[in-house]
């Protein structure tokens, strides 16, 4: 890494970048911004910045609602990153003069039927057991908070610290911030890491990281819808709402401009086809929870590919045997919430700082010798079974 290189030495060696970032999604751009702001000469390679998973992502910042059985280490990282979000959002907004749709009304977790509620309560009990802020609400309290919820909704809980941001505003803002700090964007793909000429290379290419590094990053398809409230008014609810509707996991994210994001499937597939069956399931679940959605315009149905890993946790740190190449990939369903902490901790590594202990479970070395698809549970922190099929994404 760049230990011991003085500011003057760095700036006098103008020919060679200090850092090349491969991938200009939220992760790569945030790293580029932080590195450039620390005085490093930064180049970012991407033929289509922001065209990866972030182009469709909902932008939920949900470490509490997404604290799942068997993922304690990941939950710790998610919480630490979410705690950085208020300052990160303020700094980014100040640096660019543009909003990023950061909202702090909190998240309501709901169950439509008795079975849905029983399933949700099992998870809330686990989350409360970790000391996380989850407040069960009576149906009347739920409706006081969101009168638009269907009368059939049996119950819910509030996660007040789970917020949201609009990834379609976030990524352009990060691009502007990185460029204003001095990072140079090169609109070309990197085919081989040997093509990159820099003191340190950071691979932040989402699903593209697998071909570049051999790391076990696989595409996990997510179909997702966007609706719009009639007449351009704000949606009739303020919280992020996520829940089960007749066994179907679903979430609804309201934006100030009238948009509602309704998602999402989690499929072990690498195509981005939108299927009638998925659209039907998502719409039915969404309308079951919030009947007024039936009157909204359906404006978009898309699919994106999350960069998944065998243990669902990100891969952060130097490639084994390649101290000059850092991985910052595999963020799967959490890349937006994990953007601030990934940027800070990877920038510290680039600068040769002592690795933050938070990084320890997430190094690439945990996959060495496991075979590319073997689960290696170190990063998730426990032997309990995961619930991939039952999750919100
Ligand atoms: C349906 C859906 C909903 C989601 N909802 C949420 C959510 O609510 N909250 C949350 O935290 N996360 C969510 N996510 C996950 C989140 O979008 C990802 O984790 C995040 O986008 C990962 O960021 P990234 O920058 O690593 O990768 P990406 O956003 O995929 O960006 C990767 C970039 O790398 C570039 N690239 C790839 N290969 C190369 C190469 N060889 N050379 C140069 N550039 C390259 C691509 O062009 C792209 O711009 C969701 C994802 C999906 C699909």
Keywords:
D-Amino Acid Oxidase, Chain A, domain 2, globular, single chain, 2 domains, eight-stranded mixed beta sheet, 393 residues, binds flavin-adenine dinucleotide, six-stranded mixed beta sheet, FAD/NAD(P)-binding domain, alpha/beta, 28% helix
* Count of discrete structural domains: 2
**Could you name the CATH topology of the largest domain?**
FAD/NAD(P)-binding domain
Strand-residue proportion: 15-25%
- CATH top level class name of the largest domain: Alpha Beta
Which structural class is indicated by helix and strand composition?
Answer: alpha/beta
The coarse overall form would be: globular
Number of DSSP strand runs = 16
Regions with pLDDT < 50 over 5+ consecutive residues? 372-378, 381-390
Name of the CATH homologous superfamily of the largest domain: FAD/NAD(P)-binding domain
Order of helix and strand elements from N to C terminus: HEHEEHEHEHEEHEEHEEEEHEEEH
Overall description:
The protein has 393 residues and is α/β, with parallel strands linked by helices. It has two domains: 7-57 and 167-216 and 310-390, 3-Layer(bba) Sandwich (FAD/NAD(P)-binding domain); 107-160 and 219-306, D-Amino Acid Oxidase, subunit A, domain 2 (D-Amino Acid Oxidase, Chain A, domain 2, 2-Layer Sandwich). 28% of the residues lie in helices and 22% in strands. The chain has helices at 7-12, 26-37, 72-96, 114-129, 139-145, 167-180, 209-213, 276-289, 339-350, and strands spanning 19-22, 42-45, 60-61, 107-111, 135-137, 155-159, 163-164, 184-186, 200-203, 218-228, 240-245, 248-254, 259-263, 297-308, 315-319, 322-329. Strands 5-6-4-11-12-13-10-14 form an eight-stranded mixed β-sheet. It has a six-stranded mixed β-sheet with strand order 8-2-1-9-16-15. It is globular. Residues 372-378 and 381-390 have low confidence and may be disordered.
